[in-house]
Design goal:
single chain, Glycerol-3-phosphate (1)-acyltransferase, seven-stranded mixed beta sheet, 8 helices, 7 strands, globular, lipid biosynthesis, lipid metabolism, acyltransferase activity, transferase
C-alpha cells in the first residue's frame, strides 16, 4: 500500500469514527433540521475523502416533498444524493451488512428491505406513506440492485404506490460517474463479484471521480397507476442517461 492510499484510508476510517460518535451522541437529541444538516455535511466530506467531486446538472428544481427514485450504480449513490438533497432511503437489506457504513446509513433513517419479503414490503410501504405524509423526502432505487454505468434495469413498481397514497409527486434523479476525460469511471461500478471492501479500495486508489446528479421533472402521481409511474420514471432516467452518455474518446464537454 503506497503512502497516499494509506493516508486516504486513515482519513476515511477517522471520518467513519466521527460518524459513529455523531450518531451515538448527537442524533438521539437532534431535531430533523439538524439531522439533515449533519447528514449533508458528513456525506459531502466522505465523498471529498474518496476524491469524488459532486456536480448538480442543470435540470428541474429538487422538490422538498416528494418520492425520489434514482438509478443505482454504487454504494456512493446514497452519499451523493445526501450531500445535495438529504433523503430518507429505502434500500436492500444487504446494505445493512456494510462494515460501519451500513450502521451509519441506518442511523440516518434508512429502512432496509429483504429480497422477496412480502411482510417487509407491507410494513415498509406503510412507513413510506407515513413519512411522505409528514412532508419528508423519501428515496429508493427501483432497480432493486446495482447496474453497470450506461445501463438501466427494469423498475419494480410496488413502492411507487406510496406516492399515490400520500398524494405526492415522484421525482426521478439520474446519476453518473465520470473520469477526468469525461468517460464512465471504471472504478465505480459495483456489480458481479465485486465486494464492498474491493470497491472502496478501487475508488480511493483510482483516479478522481466526478459524480453528476440530475434532478428531473416531477411526475404527478394523482390518478396514476404504480406501473405507469414506474414506466414514466424509467423512461425519464433512461433518456437523461442517454443524453449525457460520454462520446467515444471521453469528451468532458459532452458528458
Amino acid at each position: 500500500m503506497n503512502i497516499r492510499l494509506g493516508w486516504r484510508l486513515t482519513r476515511l476510517i477517522l471520518h467513519l469514527l466521527q460518524g459513529l460518535l455523531t450518531c451515538a451522541l448527537v442524533f438521539p437529541w437532534a431535531g430533523a433540521a439538524l439531522r439533515e444538516r449533519l447528514v449533508r455535511r458528513w456525506s459531502a466530506k466522505l465523498l471529498r475523502i474518496c476524491r469524488v467531486q459532486v456536480e448538480r446538472v442543470d435540470g428541474a428544481a429538487p422538490l422538498q416533498h416528494a418520492l425520489i427514485v434514482s438509478n443505482h450504480i454504487s454504494w456512493l449513490d446514497i452519499f451523493v444524493i445526501n450531500a445535495l438533497h438529504p433523503c430518507r432511503f429505502v434500500a436492500k437489506a444487504e446494505i445493512r451488512a456494510w462494515p460501519v457504513l451500513g450502521w451509519l446509513v441506518a442511523q440516518a433513517g434508512t429502512v432496509f428491505i429483504a429480497r422477496g419479503s412480502r411482510r417487509d414490503l407491507r410494513h415498509i410501504f406503510k412507513g413510506l406513506v407515513d413519512a411522505l405524509a409528514q412532508h419528508q423526502r423519501v428515496a429508493f432505487f427501483p432497480e432493486g440492485t446495482t447496474s453497470s454505468q450506461g445501463s438501466l434495469l427494469p423498475f419494480h413498481a410496488n413502492l411507487f404506490e406510496a406516492a399515490i397514497d400520500a398524494r405526492v409527486p415522484v421525482q426521478p434523479y439520474a446519476l453518473s460517474y465520470l473520469d477526468g476525460a469525461g468517460g464512465w469511471h471504471p472504478a465505480v461500478d459495483y456489480t458481479g463479484e465485486t465486494t464492498f471492501v474491493d470497491s472502496i479500495f478501487r475508488i480511493i486508489g483510482g483516479e478522481p471521480v466526478r459524480a453528476r446528479l440530475a434532478c428531473l421533472a416531477p411526475i404527478e402521481a394523482a390518478g396514476a397507476h404504480r406501473r405507469e409511474l414506474a414506466s414514466a420514471a424509467h423512461d425519464a432516467i433512461g433518456k437523461a442517461l442517454v443524453a449525457r452518455r460520454p462520446r467515444e474518446g471521453g469528451d468532458p464537454s459532452s458528458a
